[in-house]
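Before relying on records like the one below, remember that each one covers exactly one chain. Contacts with other chains, cofactors or solvent are not represented anywhere in the record.
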Amino acid sequence: MEDKKTVKPMNQTITLDNREKLRVTGVIDVESFNEESIIAVTELGVLIIRGAELHISKLNLDSNELVVDGDIFSLEYSDGETGKSKSFFGKMFK
């Protein structure tokens, strides 16, 4: 018999209010954050949020929701790379 796997459809909503408040759904994890950038793993890839005075005001991984306050400059998707530089061995053994 064949195993049938149910694939959950990927949905994501991004709402940006006046470049000061960002709401993102579909967030699986937050990999790193500081006042200038937040790296979030989402159902659609890695989302890099850049800005100034960034603060995570809400993170609920049960409902896959992230809310960020601050001056938001850019949102960038990456397919797996987190924007962090690879280690010496990671660069050597591509």
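The chain has one domain: 14-83.
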